[in-house]
Amino acid sequence: MSNGTDFNNIVDVSCLQRWGSTPAWRLTDYSIAGQSPRHKESPFPFDPKLNDKICLWEGDISSLSVDGIVHSTNETLSDQNPISDKIHWRAGPDLREDIRLEIKECRTGEVRVSQGHGLPSRLIIHTVGPKYNTKYHTAAENTLHGCYRNVLQKAQELRLSTIGLSVINSVRRNYPPNEGAHIALRTVRRFLEKYPNAFDTLVFVVDSSDFGIYEVILPLYFPRSEAEENKARWQLPTDIGGSDGEPLYPDRQIRIIDNPQHAFGNEELNIFQTDDCCLNIGEHAFSQMQGDLDQQRLLGERPCNDPVTDILIKEMQHKGR
């Protein structure tokens, strides 16, 4: 039985375009909106050397030829989703044996390492992202940050030069994609600032549903010019985390949109529920990510009628076309 994986398709990381050489968005003068920037100075300055380490790639992570790839899975490393299926299929039965005999389990927030076996990647760093519940927003946010931080630390310990980093948060676990992207990008940015020689290349490997999100948010944390850096002072959230990108506001609760059609109502999601109990993604509020709901929140926390938000939404709509 085939899952559509082409074993002959191998993508060498050296062929991917570096973030610093990608074209910047059309720049907008946000001062015309009559509002001050959220940040007086840029918390993430323009740094060409860091940008040359970053790639944003929409593709199949199982085909990427790097020192290590990151595999987001469940506690028993048996998650069934398109990305995990491709990794297991291409790695072959030896990976399943490694999991059964050596790894056995991986707790939420932790990492485990296996050989890549049939993959072009030499190693696989497995990790388990959090299940998301608005009631336990802080716990989920801290756990997701820990996942990314632990992955980067393990890759550094293993002296991996090139990494394919998949999106660890998952809508199957009810994590809002935009929230997860902010945490991922600021954690990676802070890590590279502290350890500039840790990696030669770090590839954010995304699918079509996440590509637009990362394309919008990545310039905030890795601006490609001083002008883009300045623009980010309006767009970045107020909460940009601590020195490692960790959350700083433990009592902050996520704001739920007032529009009833986007509300969860009285529904409560158990953060410890099994994957089989997850909501139908097509009916979930987060499935409308590219609609009107999260366009307001993708770049931060401004109110709905805020002039800067209106400009951002128009830019995103233009980009979407």
Automatic annotation (TrEMBL):
Please list which residues make up the signal peptide.
none
Give all residue intervals belonging to the Macro domain.
Answer: 41-222
Which InterPro entries does this chain map to?
Answer: Macro_dom, Macro_dom-like, Macro_GDAP2
Q: Which Gene3D superfamilies match?
A: Leucine Aminopeptidase, subunit E, domain 1
**Name this polypeptide is given:** Protein LRP16, putative
Q: Which organism is it from?
A: Pediculus humanus subsp. corporis (Body louse)
Output the lineage of the source organism.
Eukaryota, Metazoa, Ecdysozoa, Arthropoda, Hexapoda
